[in-house]
Design brief:
single chain, 3-stranded antiparallel β-sheet, 2 helices
């Protein structure tokens, strides 16, 4: 279900002319990181951000080229 939802979202972005998709994900959220990597996102950096709990958390910055075949 999560893969199909992400594919649908990425299709909307492609159709609207967006070329690159970026996201950040908590490094501790391994299933989410794996999902994004399966779809084709790659880790391009790391940063620390305060999240909803008010604490600093390490996050991956991930990127997907929507112009490449098979993305999404």
């Amino acid at each position: 279900v999560s893969s199909r939802l992400m594919s649908a979202i990425l299709d909307v972005l492609k159709k609207s002319g967006i070329r690159l998709a970026f996201l950040s994900v908590n490094v501790a959220q391994v299933p989410a990181v794996r999902l994004y990597q399966r779809i084709g996102f790659r880790i391009t950096g790391r940063e620390t951000q305060p999240l909803g709990d008010g604490l600093e958390h390490e996050e991956y910055i991930m990127e997907l080229d929507l112009r490449s075949p098979g993305s999404g």
